[in-house]
Amino acid sequence: MKITRVCAAMIVAGAMTADVIAVEPLPFTEMFDTDASNWRDVGGVNDATWFATGGVDDSGYISTTLNVPDPVPPFGVLAFRAQNDFGSSNGAFEGNWLTAGVSQVSLDVRHNGAEPIQMYIRVAGANGEPGAVVLNFAPVSAGAWTTVTFDISPSNPGLIPEGVPFETAFSNVGRFQIGAVPGSGLVNTSLTLDIDNVTLLPAPGVLFALAPVALMRRRRRNVNA
């Protein structure tokens, strides 16, 4: 099953209330080199499982295992939560993405599914709403670290606002979430999803000017633009 714009609009998450702080200076990368950085799994209770090695360039990464239901929900399955009320990444993903100049999000993902999956991200306010989903429609094959990139733009065909304008969704981010869309061939199986190098990127021209800083990001192995 491949997700559609209509199905993606159904993606929502739980909510709690807290203050939102500013986005870290860009580019910012959460590398998970020392721990899970207060990122949690789908239930929002337990930290995602952290591994010190095995990530991109054999560095740290986080992981979770999902039970894929039958039928697969049309909106996919939520996997990771970085939220204001958890203190995830010291609030680096919170605040006004527009004034901070966020133009893309990229992340390295690996999974063990028997068929390719798709990936999405979701942002929402501190109380869980309003929000927006951004999809990458490219299939992600199993067994290798793959870089997936999401354009933060109102013209992105993978953008699904949840009943609010683009500007509203991305100007007050309190929750940042990552999910997967498994195909029907994965129903009633356990899907292990690993992520590393979750990055907020500025516009290309700004990134070029900051190239010495950007070089600190570890080399990525496969790319899905």
Which segments are poorly predicted (pLDDT under 50) over 5 or more consecutive residues?
A: 1-21, 207-222
Rg from Cα: 16 Å
How many individual β-strands? 12
Order of helices and strands: HEEEEHEEEEEHEEHHE
Classify the beta-strand content into a percent band: 25-35%
**Number of helical stretches of at least 4 residues:** 5
Structural shape: globular
CATH superfamily: Galactose-binding domain-like
What summary fits the major beta sheet? Answer: 7 strands, mixed
Question: What distance lies between the first and last C-alpha atoms, to the nearest angstrom?
Answer: 20 Å
Q: Under CATH, the topology is which?
A: Jelly Rolls
Q: State the CATH class.
A: Mainly Beta
Helix content: 10-25%
* Tally of separate domains: 1
CATH second-level architecture = Sandwich
Return the average pLDDT rounded to an integer.
85
Structure classification:
mainly beta
